[in-house]
Design brief:
With 334 residues, this protein is mainly α. The chain has helices at 2-5, 9-19, 25-38, 46-58, 62-79, 85-97, 104-117, 123-134, 143-159, 161-164, 170-181, 186-205, 212-222, 227-240, 250-263, 269-282, 290-296, 301-319.
Length: 334
């Protein structure tokens, strides 16, 4: 298919970039997606990157600008390694300048785009972006700038874990994510907790266990008085423990499970529903009952009773159904 499309590249590119200006949002999003797929077979990618960057700079319509940012993100994912270094630097400067944008959707789309770019920056460029922006001191800065930085840092851990979690940066990255997760502003805290989920997955893919700081903060988030905080913590535990990954050891699971079991009795319907989803994945129940049994052996009587009751009520039924494929990255427009 790819080779067959080559003769039509210029035509397709023109059609898709024009569609980014369409009044229909669904058309614009499809066009952004299509450009991300098309760029992979492109030899000369620079003109498209430049055109998108110019469009982002000059667009007065925020809805169109945001879809252009998404298109730029997807073409970066597909061809970030092929783009000219000077153009890449221009892109990163423009995106850094938009991290504090007063429109939420623009701030989020530019943060996601910058995160994607982090996989392709030179070591020197990455160090500058991290130390001068994403890991920089937050005291006295506008909350929107902090929110944009926090989003970009969290998503970068998801899309470029080998770089963000290298020994050179790991401690600073984890500290900043944990600090963001405990921010007073809910949007900053939510983005930090997403980052915690991305870190959790990174540790699980490496077969390692969770740093105590990370698991302890997850438990605190599950016990938070805000439903928004509880909900995103549950979603990230659900997502980071999807079936293909090895399970955590029972001693690490136990305190997280106890907090999730408490949330199965929460007054908020969504919090209750997602705690069930998170427990099914945490205990790998779609793969059998091995983890469930080994954790049951070390639970106190009250928690065990709660777990058995939840199994009867909903967990066994959920485990018999296919897992949801919900999009967890909220910087991607849908």
């Amino acid at each position: 298919v790819e080779i067959a499309l080559k003769p039509f590249l210029p035509q397709l590119q023109t059609t898709f970039t024009k569609a980014l200006q369409d009044s229909n949002r669904a058309v614009r999003l499809k066009a952004a997606d299509a450009l991300g797929k098309l760029i992979v077979i492109h030899v000369k990618v620079d003109p498209l990157f430049t055109e998108l960057l110019n469009g982002i700079r000059s667009s007065d319509d925020s809805a169109i600008r945001d879809t252009m940012l998404q298109a730029l993100r997807f073409v970066t994912r597909g061809a970030g390694a092929k783009v000219d270094a000077a153009i890449r630097r221009n892109i990163s400067m423009v995106l850094l300048g938009m991290l504090g944008h007063d429109e939420d959707a623009t701030r989020m789309a530019s943060a996601g785009c910058l995160a994607e770019l982090c996989a392709f920056l030179s070591e020197e460029e990455l160090s500058t972006v991290l130390h001068q922006h994403l890991l920089a001191d937050v005291s006295g800065i506008d909350w929107m700038v902090r929110h944009g930085r926090s989003l970009a840092l969290s998503v970068a851990v998801n899309v470029a874990p080998s770089r963000l979690c290298s020994p050179k940066y790991y401690n600073s990255v984890q500290e900043m994510i944990l600090s963001n997760a405990t921010a007073d502003r809910i949007p900053i805290a939510v983005s930090g907790i997403r980052g915690m989920g991305f870190l959790m997955k990174y540790h699980m893919e490496g077969g390692g266990n969770l740093p105590p700081k990370l698991s302890n903060l997850f438990i605190k988030c599950l016990q938070n008085s805000s439903s928004d905080i509880k909900l995103v913590a549950e979603k990230m535990i659900w997502w980071a423990n999807k079936n293909h990954l090895p399970s955590l050891d029972p001693q690490t699971i136990k305190p997280i499970l106890k907090a999730l079991l408490d949330n199965t009795k929460d007054k908020n319907t969504s919090v209750r529903a997602y705690s069930d989803q998170a427990i099914v994945n945490l205990l790998k129940m779609r793969a059998g009952e091995e983890v469930l049994e080994s954790v049951s052996k070390i639970l106190d009587a009250a928690s065990l009773e709660l777990l058995n009751e939840s199994c009867r009520r909903s967990l066994k039924k959920l485990a018999g159904q296919a897992d949801s494929d919900e999009q967890i990255d909220d910087t991607i427009l849908t």
